[in-house]
Write a structure and sequence with these properties.
about 180 residues, mainly alpha, about 5% strand
């Protein structure tokens, strides 16, 4: 297997997600309620009895690249909110069935990582009828593609963890790297 640089892997992941988003939008989403006009806007993302979104390391790195586009104050707020989410819901690598409220949804503004949000978030919408839902097999197909990309970038099988856990891990690693480069 030919390894890819992280930069190339992130570019491919972004294209893969854009393709998935296009399929969902064109083939399914037109039958769903519009999130922007929903009377309960964002409630599904903040429902701590419902949200259990898992991502890979490569996806977490893509999300962090998106977060870096925000102001330094917003970044610090998100880091704190993410850590609070991990603590409040007792999220860890070994506690993957625990549900949580997404720390990246901001009331009044929406999803702060909308452009790179996880597949489960892209696929999710409020559909009136069960037969209008995208098939699980579509998301599973794209998850396999993401796993393959992770293997090509990191040389090991993808580890699927709750979104806030990966963000915490990589944020801590980033802090350690910056300490190393300062000394």
């Amino acid at each position: 297997m030919k390894l890819l640089s992280e930069r190339e892997g992130l570019a491919r992941l972004k294209k893969l997600k854009e393709n998935f988003r296009k399929i969902i939008r064109e083939s399914y989403e037109y039958r769903a309620k519009n999130c922007l006009t929903c009377e309960h806007q964002g409630i599904c993302c903040l429902d701590d009895h419902f949200v259990n979104v898992h991502i890979t390391e490569l996806e977490a790195n893509l999300i962090l690249k998106e977060v870096e586009k925000l102001s330094s104050e917003k970044i610090e707020t998100l880091k704190k909110r993410n850590l609070q989410t991990v603590a409040k819901y007792n999220l860890s690598e070994g506690n993957s069935n625990q549900t949580f409220a997404c720390p990246f949804l901001e009331k009044g503004k929406g999803c702060l990582i909308h452009e790179v949000k996880p597949l489960a978030c892209i696929q999710h919408a409020c559909y009136e009828r069960k037969e209008h839902l995208p098939p699980d097999s579509l998301q599973e197909e794209y998850e396999r593609k993401i796993e393959r990309l992770n293997r090509q970038v990191y040389g090991k099988p993808a580890k699927w963890l709750p979104l806030p856990v990966w963000i915490k891990i990589l944020t801590e690693i980033g802090c350690e790297k910056s300490k190393i480069t300062k000394t």
